[in-house]
Design a protein that fits this description.
Order of helices and strands: HEEEEEEEHHEEEEEHEEEEEEEEEEH
Helix content: 25-40%
CATH topology of the largest domain: Elongation Factor Tu (Ef-tu), domain 3
Strand content: 25-35%
Number of strands: 22
Structural class: alpha+beta
CATH class of the largest domain: Mainly Beta
Strand order of the largest sheet: 3-12-15-14-13-16
CATH architecture of the largest domain: Beta Barrel
Number of helices: 5
Number of domains: 4
Largest sheet: 6 strands, antiparallel, barrel
Length: 413
């Protein structure tokens, strides 16, 4: 009997009790607490939108060149007997200074010969006038009436007069040739190159050197059609001379490690669109680039490459933003009053590589998003950097405790 109880009844009782215990424990188990998953708002940097009146600045660059450049060519033959000390590359001179002197001897002789020929022709003319007077008296003593021209020696008188005029022309030519033996400066300037040397024999047409004027320097500045729209420039069919005072130019370059600036002014456009680069050139001028009249600013050498900033037209109530903040389709990302991201369709008046100038599309309550956000979505909640809320401070102790627990758990393992 006991053996049957142990082998049959007791196992059944154990199984039944185990099942009842499992059911009872299952009924006593509490369901897990449910909590809603919340994502933290994106932290962004923003900037206030403040429209302002802006004067556009157009950037360009160019080479400084002289407005006047002359090649000195000999108009006479002869030997060079004198060369001015200033007639060297880089030498300065004033208008009227003697640069090269050609030997005068032959030309002085020509002048004397021409003057002698003139005196001889004038004597022959005086003699012929006397003969005409005698002929008139003889004609009147023999007969009345008008005497024929041949009888009064009119053709001979005209020939003598022509000889005098020819001799006078020869004197003028000889004097011009004599004056051309002195090569003088036509304006204030500087010697670029020199080809004449003392004792050298030169002939008519020989190049003696090249000079440049130092009164005015020119800089050709390339501009696109877009840039031209923001300058006060003459329109099609009008004069190419710029009369507006707004088109001031500031030139800059680095000299000996120092940034140096020179004021300039636009004076004209070249009026032809370059076929290769598709730009149009405007010309700026700098007065007295070598400071020969007044030492008020650094010397601006010919041949120097300079950057130019041109003062353009003024735009009113324009918002200037960094160029990378302008999204494709002329849109910008802003934060509205509800602290959510929004896209604004804007009107761009001008865009450069550094900035975009917006005239319409932004609201005064918007804040421009300055942070880079990958795949931004309209309506996304954000937190603005610098706006610390109560929830932000409450989260900090919990985050510190969780971090400490994680460190201890790692040490125990």
């Amino acid at each position: 009997m006991s053996s049957f109880f142990v082998k049959v009844i007791l196992p059944v009782v154990v199984v039944v009790v185990a099942i009842m215990a499992a059911v009872g424990l299952g009924k006593m188990r509490q369901p897990p607490q449910k909590s809603e998953e919340t994502r933290p708002a994106i932290l962004v940097n923003t900037g206030a939108i403040s429209p302002d009146n802006i004067v556009y600045q157009i950037s360009s660059q160019g080479m400084v060149t002289p407005k006047l450049e002359t090649s000195l060519i000999s108009e006479v033959n002869g030997r060079v007997v004198a060369v001015a000390e200033e007639f060297v590359a880089g030498g300065f001179f004033k208008k009227g200074d003697l640069l090269v002197q050609v030997e005068k001897s032959d030309y002085l002789t020509n002048v004397k010969a021409a003057q002698a020929a003139l005196a001889n022709a004038q004597a022959m003319l005086a003699e012929e006038k006397a003969r005409v007077k005698v002929a008139e008296e003889e004609w009147r003593s023999f007969t009345d009436g008008n005497a024929p021209a041949l009888g009064l020696r009119q053709p001979q008188l005209a020939s003598a007069l022509a000889s005098v005029q020819s001799a006078e022309a020869e004197v003028e030519r000889a004097n011009r040739d004599l004056a051309r033996t002195e090569i003088r400066a036509p304006y204030d300037g500087m010697v670029r190159t020199r080809a004449a040397n003392l004792g050298q024999f030169i002939s008519r047409g020989t190049a003696l050197g090249s000079i440049v004027g130092t009164d005015i320097a020119e800089i050709r500045l390339p501009l696109t059609d877009t840039d031209m729209a923001f300058l006060t420039m003459p329109g099609a069919g009008e004069s190419d001379t710029i009369t507006s005072d707004n088109n001031q130019v500031m030139l800059s370059s680095t000299i000996a490690g120092q940034q140096v600036q020179w004021p300039a002014k636009l004076v004209r456009t070249e009026g032809i669109l370059d076929e290769r680069s598709r730009v149009i050139y405007v010309v700026a001028e700098v007065a007295d680039p070598y400071q020969r009249r007044n030492q008020t600013q650094p010397v601006l050498n010919f041949g120097r490459f300079v950057a130019a900033t041109i003062t353009g037209t003024q735009a009113e109530q324009v918002v200037k933003v960094a160029r990378h903040l302008l999204l494709p389709g002329n849109k910008v990302l802003v934060v509205d009053n509800d602290n959510t991201l929004q896209f604004r369709q804007v009107t761009v008046d001008r865009a450069t590589a550094e900035a975009a100038y917006i005239t319409n599309g932004l609201q005064s309550s918007d804040q421009l998003v300055l942070s880079a956000i990958s795949n931004p979505l309209a309506g996304t909640m954000v937190r603005i950097a610098g706006d610390n809320t109560v929830e932000d401070h409450a989260e900090q102790p919990t985050q510190l405790a969780d971090a400490a627990a994680a460190v201890k758990q790692a040490e125990g393992q």
